[in-house]
Amino acid sequence: MTARGVSSPLRARNFGPGPAYLPTEVLERLASDLLDYQGSGLGVAEISHRGPLFAPVREALEDRLRRLLALPARYAILWMHGGATPHFGLIPLNLGRRRGRADYVVSGHWSACAYEEARRLLPEARVAARASKPPVAVPPTASWSLDPEADYVYYTDNESVDGIEFPGAPRVARPLVADMTANFLSRPIEIGPHALVYAGAQKNLGLTGLGVVVVDRELLPEDLPGVPRTDVYAAHLAERSMLNTPNTVAWYTAALMLEWIEHAGGLEALAVRNRRKADRLYAVLDGSGGFYLNEVSPAYRSRMNVPFQLADPALLPVFLREAAAAGLHQLEGHRSRGGLRASLYNAQPEEAVADLARFLEEFRRRHG
Amino acid sequence: MTARGVSSPLRARNFGPGPAYLPTEVLERLASDLLDYQGSGLGVAEISHRGPLFAPVREALEDRLRRLLALPARYAILWMHGGATPHFGLIPLNLGRRRGRADYVVSGHWSACAYEEARRLLPEARVAARASKPPVAVPPTASWSLDPEADYVYYTDNESVDGIEFPGAPRVARPLVADMTANFLSRPIEIGPHALVYAGAQKNLGLTGLGVVVVDRELLPEDLPGVPRTDVYAAHLAERSMLNTPNTVAWYTAALMLEWIEHAGGLEALAVRNRRKADRLYAVLDGSGGFYLNEVSPAYRSRMNVPFQLADPALLPVFLREAAAAGLHQLEGHRSRGGLRASLYNAQPEEAVADLARFLEEFRRRHG
Lengths: 368, 368
Prior knowledge:
The structure is a homodimer. Chain A is of the alpha/beta class. Chain A is built from 9 helices and 14 strands. Chain A has 2 domains: 44-263, Aspartate Aminotransferase, domain 2, CATH 3.40.640.10; 266-367, Aspartate Aminotransferase, domain 1 (Alpha-Beta Complex). Chain A has helices spanning 24-35, 55-69, 86-95, 109-121, 233-238, 248-263, 266-286, 316-325, 350-367; strands spanning 13-14, 75-81, 101-106, 124-130, 153-156, 158-159, 164-165, 176-179, 194-200, 210-216, 292-293, 305-310, 328-329, 340-343. The longest helix of chain A has 21 residues, at 266-286. Chain A starts with 12 loop residues before the first strand and ends with a helix. Residues 1-9 of chain A have low confidence and may be disordered. At the A-B interface, helix 1, helix 3, helix 4 and helix 6 of A face helix 1, helix 3, helix 4 and helix 6 of B.
């Protein structure tokens, strides 16, 4: 993966939650291919999605993701427009029609949004469990209030706003549906218990506007009367994700990201690296004597998104100003929470995390 | 609009229908900004859609499009995921609920698709008129079978597969809904008679995956019970097109395309240039003594997409091979029709059309 015709400028440390930092070599390749794709004189954004130049991109998306996830044949992969949010509605429509019942685990911001949307569409969407008050944790599955008639049990594997991540797939005797937007491809997935896993692309798969759905094809109803065709998973499956013109630039970037993940050693290698990055940061927060605060119970702390507060909130603007001056960007917390947040997706270099850890310690020494 | 750090390679002549040719200077700017946006050290794909770096992009989209269309205040602009196709379903859901009735003018491939989708969603979607057999034309509005109770009359201003374009907005005493995907911003629009105008971005606004909706805000129902929020136009309006994370790279490219259109002199200047390009090509076809065939009545011929057949279909592979060797690409007709098609959107240079015209004449001399 080498760039042609593009010089690499100074790239800042970027801790944004998404749109997030992307590997420089991926961006260089995309930048170059926008003007001339494989010596064709046509840019990658200017070629037919059904033509011979683009066909290998589609194949790479399917083959590489299938290989990385070690996906059994019963699962189909759908690449769809719109990121993650449309699936808050599409999942109840497509998977909740048999009995109109579903259980939701509300562990933070995004699962609360998904539950709210499910209530618009299913007569019997219910909350099976909620995250506890600080120290924040998901209650053990044995205590969940599960509906034996539920079509599925929904959970958000990584809550990017709250910094809460499941240690692994919950053990329940129901088909699971998981929003893995913020930790997809950051570690191996136990896919077997899942009816459906989905993710927006903008964290570990590149650009905004694209979402990927991995779904047990046996569970998809063939049609949903009264529902737009673009909301019917089976229609996307039948057209191999080309029901309408795909987001070709995002598809191409996702294919480059999958290649990058393979070159990085695959999901096991990334899991080790991601754990090391997160441990480094949490160690600084926990060792700050209360100067920095993170309220999530260690077993449920996210490896991808580390939200934290300053014990003295008056220091927040000072922190952001000094961090930016040190070349550390996009550390603001989610608008619903305030405070700070560092996102550590696959592409986040260990050197960037080391820079941030050093800055956190120096800032505490100066202002603590 | 100057590029930094990117050398412009040889760019081929590209007549693709979309994903289509884009101005080299737009691609150079995008390529450069993917790595470093405004000297921030962050790429344009890596910054928060709600942050200060991206805010001017959002404003530029709104302000420039409003200015180019001379848009009255009662119209809102929505930027949405998925290009044009989702609106085949969203329009009946959002605008057809009052009476459940709508009239469709079926003038070609895309309006037939839109009508088929409307029939899934509205009890009383009907065909008001159909294009005639060759010479292909839309019947005069006086002959349309209009439902006096229809919520709207739907037409496709430019049929990109069939090469049929309306000379102007049809005169009917109903709110109009227009799919302008393939000719949006190629000439001034008479917006007043329209309830809604929409377009996929991939022709004159840049990348795939993005659609724009210009809609009379008074006509939008506040909510649609039982419908996913992402399908409710009013929800997108309330969130100023950030109901969920937008396709930031496509938004940025659309902003660059709007700037490019302004620099090109705006819609009046482009209308003159686009007419000249199309006239040049149709003159060659009509002067070929039947070697090349186009069956559309001159008054309804598209200025954007020029489909044509070879009288001897056996020559088709020869034509495509020789055209490619001459540096003329993506001239294949739509997979549903076969034959040939040249697309001449705003960015298509007059020199490229001149090259194609010369090739057409030479090919006829050699094979006629």
